[in-house]
Amino acid sequence: MKPRIGLSVNYEEKGPGKVGAYLGADYTDGIYAAGGLPFVLPLTDERAWIEDLADELDGLLLTGGDDIDPSYFGQEPLLGLGQVTPLRDAMEFQLFAAMRARQKPIFGICRGVQVMNAALGGTLYQDLPREFQGTLQHSQKAPRQHTAHAVEVVSGTLLAKIVEIESLPVNTYHHQAVRDLAPGCVATAHSRDGLVEAIECPSDRFTLGVQWHPENLWRKHTSHFRLFTAFTEAAAARRKAAQKESVFVREEK
């Protein structure tokens, strides 16, 4: 059976008791093309529900979307902060912790890498134009399939092994980013102006996040498709290991 990959969703309130959830098809298409079975996750902050999801899923893809409430990284809202979605924040931070406690693969894209860093004790730039004196345009005005700038990949990292290229062309659609790196994480790619573009947790089996949007690039760029295949393969391996462990426990009984 294909590994079951949960994907977080964007949402907006449509009125009292009405919430609209949505997710770009490039995410689910990429997971399925890479050998996974995508599941678009419900929005909930109920702990028991989140724990059940973590038990059943083989991997978690934290997708792009709205800004993160700065209280999650010890700050108050600053000028330039965009729309925050409290229910999504609550769910993703809890589900990230639950999946990581089970040592299940986690892949973060754009907002997803920011959730990972904040959840592990790092901080974020709330608004790059106001807080980061870089030279590159990090929110490109071009089609999403267009590569705008390159990121330099750190050799010897999980990311380097996956993409197999030192200077990787990426697209870029963000105004927030990793600021102070979380303890236990390493930066595995940077833009030319010094911004962190990818992080990973070396002590984990697969906890990797990227600031760009490979879901828009995987159809034409092999290196970006490898991110999806490496993630789904890690989820498949975790599923297989869990099944073997279950068989061993039954035999012991």
Which sequence of SSEs, written as H and E, runs from N to C? EEEHEHEHEHEHEHEEEEEH
Based on CA atoms alone, the radius of gyration comes out at 18 Å
Query: Mean pLDDT across all residues, rounded?
Result: 95
The CATH superfamily appears as Class I glutamine amidotransferase (GATase) domain
> Regions with pLDDT < 50 over 5+ consecutive residues?
none
Compute the number of strand runs. 13
* Strand line-up in the sheet with most strands: 4-1-5-6-13-12-11-8-9
Pfam families: Peptidase_C26
InterPro entries: Class_I_gatase-like, Peptidase_C26, PuuD-like
GO cellular component, one term: cytosol
GO molecular function, one term: gamma-glutamyl-gamma-aminobutyrate hydrolase activity
Furnish the topology, listing elements before pairings.
Elements: E1 4-7, E2 10-15, E3 18-22, H1 25-33, E4 37-40, H2 47-56, E5 59-62, H3 86-101, E6 106-109, H4 111-119, E7 124-125, H5 128-131, E8 149-153, H6 158-163, E9 167-170, E10 177-178, E11 186-191, E12 196-200, E13 207-210, H7 222-252
How would you portray this structure in words?
A hairpin with a 6-residue loop joins strand 12 (196-200) and strand 13. The protein has helices spanning 25-33, 47-56, 86-101, 111-119, 128-131, 158-163, 222-252; strands at residues 4-7, 10-15, 18-22, 37-40, 59-62, 106-109, 124-125, 149-153, 167-170, 177-178, 186-191, 196-200, 207-210. The chain is built from seven helices and 13 strands. The chain has 253 residues and is an alpha/beta fold. The strands form three sheets. Strands 4-1-5-6-13-12-11-8-9 form a nine-stranded mixed sheet, with helices on both faces. The chain has one domain (4-252): Class I glutamine amidotransferase (GATase) domain (Rossmann fold, 3-Layer(aba) Sandwich), CATH 3.40.50. 44% of the residues are buried. Helix 2 (47-56) packs across helix 3. Helix content is 34%, strand content 22%.
